[in-house]
Amino acid sequence: MGTFDASTRKRLLTVALVGLLVASAGCAQIPGIGGDGGDGDGGSSDIEPYAESGDELDGETVSSDHAAALQEAGSFTYEVSLEAADGESSLSINARVEADVENDEAYSVQESNLFGNQTAYKYTSGDSTYEKTVRGSDEENAQYATSEDGQVQPVNTTPSFEASLVDGLEWSQEGTEEQNGVGVTRYESTGVANVTALAGAGTDAENVSDASATMYLDADGVVRQYDLTYTVQEGDSETAVTYEVETTGVGSTSVEEPDWLDEARN
Fold first, then answer.
1. Which residue spans within 51-154 are E strands per DSSP?
2. Do the domain assignments include residue 1?
3. 246 domain-assigned
């Protein structure tokens, strides 16, 4: 098994950031990514489906519906996790964003081991943004920055979901169920429609195997959960990729000031 070269790292970093609501520094799993697949029976008739059974999913429509519904809700929590492992090493990027758009507040945490272990925390309130960066577990030497320095961008609270994550796969609607108290429509992938939508896969479909995805959409089009796994063959090396997205707290997320805010202000 080979290790990850610079070009592979760059490709993985790019796809991991697709759909993230986090604006700049720091990059990776927050506990709670994914889920247990819900507590329904997969066929609840009193749950409004996202679309009629048999309707073909369109990535641009899903992306647009997802963004519009979250904007209207006014607040949400968004988590993304990417892991790539080749047997000798693994890379991971995990991020969590808590966005209270109505009150102009947001908080994000990003963890990554792409270029050494690093965690970046960011808090935005109104026109001010504060950031804390920790390398490894060295909290004593944490670095702080503010938007007043001109180098810190606010947490991006514009919701998005990359259309290619839908259009890159073929889907089958598998009924409705309740997941974490929310009615959703479950979709399962049945094949790969566009291999270039998969990070690190290149353009040759023969390089990709074991591709599998599940997506849960509520009636308004919010992507409540998206789980994707596949394997990429690069020469003698196989890379197993896992990509997960979860949206929770729609309309009920609140943001609190972090306990490190005073250090950042000083």
1. 75-85, 90-100, 105-112, 118-125, 128-135, 143-146
2. no
3. yes
Give how far the C-alpha of residue 250 lies from the chain's centroid of Cα atoms, to the nearest Å. 15
Q: Is residue 70 part of a domain?
A: yes
Rounded Cα distance between 197 and 236, Å, is: 22
CB 120 within 8 A of CB 136: no
**Other C-beta atoms lying within 10 Å of the C-beta of residue 247:** 24
Mean pLDDT by 10 residues, the chain (266 residues): 53 43 28 35 73 89 95 94 83 93 95 88 96 92 92 87 92 94 96 81 77 96 95 82 94 96 93
Cα dihedral 68, 72, 77, 82, rounded to 10, equals 0
Nearest to 96 by CA among 252, 261, 255: 255
Total number of domains in the chain:
1
Residue type, 186: R
Show the domain range for 54: 6-265
